[in-house]
Amino acid sequence: MTALFALATSLLWGLADFGGGLLTRRAPALTVVVVSQSIAAVVLGAIVLATGGWSEAGPRLWFAVAAGLVGPVALLAFYQALALGPMGVVSPLATFSVAVPVSVGLFLGERPGLLQVAGIAVAVAGVVLAGGPQLRGAPVQRRAVLLTLVAALGFGTVFVLITEASTNVTGLFLALFVQRVTNVVAGGAALYVSVRRGTPALPEGGLPPAALPAYGFVGLADVAANGTYAIAAQAGPVTVAAVLASLYPVVTALAARGFLRERLRAVQAAGAGLALLGTLLLATG
């Protein structure tokens, strides 16, 4: 159960990142975040009303609020780091977000077996390599590294917070809704400040209605990924769930290969293979 939902998380996050990356080529990153999360919030609000999720309101929702505040900060730090580049170094560094939930799991007393430890090491190495690390070329700015580590810490913190935000499926819908509303408010405030500074909020020609389904897919895939991760972490060891969920860069790379005909470098292909091997070790351990 844990492995299945965690792998679903990596699939959904990988596709959401791929879609979000495509959208940010035509619109500002903040606009993509706000629009996609707004659509997700509307859909989740309807689900909460239909399932009676408001009955699950309680102190745990503050974890969802915290996740909603941390998430946009981490995302913006990551986008800024990517802009500074080189992406071949920045992107793999962000996978160190897995360190936060794994550390929490170990602190709470989880002790993975020897085979699982080997699987964790192999899978993390595979994910880093699948990002296509750039070992030569332009030097990395210290600010880019710092921003990437801030993003990784933020992403990992969201992993932990969303797991604590609910204890059942109905409560999970409510927690995800609260998280998304907080995302929209925080992202909207940042977008407002950005516009006041002279940065356009919309691409040239405005936001075409035909693009809304793509924005909706990105927002809903991100929501679904948060939900499947919470279920995975509650059903089994957090150390296993977090590592398997962190395989999303492999999915993004494969999506780029399939849809954009981008060629995988040898190091990326090797990384994908290692990630698969690590997954098998974790699943059988």
TrEMBL record:
Coiled coil (UniProt feature): none
Span of domain EamA: 3-130, 143-283
Keyword Transferase set for record: no
Pfam families: EamA (PF00892)
Regions that span the bilayer: 28-49, 61-82, 113-132, 144-163, 169-193, 214-232, 238-259, 266-284
Similarity comment: family membership: Belongs to the EamA transporter family.
UniProt-recorded name of the protein: Membrane protein
Lineage per the UniProt record: Bacteria, Bacillati, Actinomycetota, Actinomycetes, Kitasatosporales
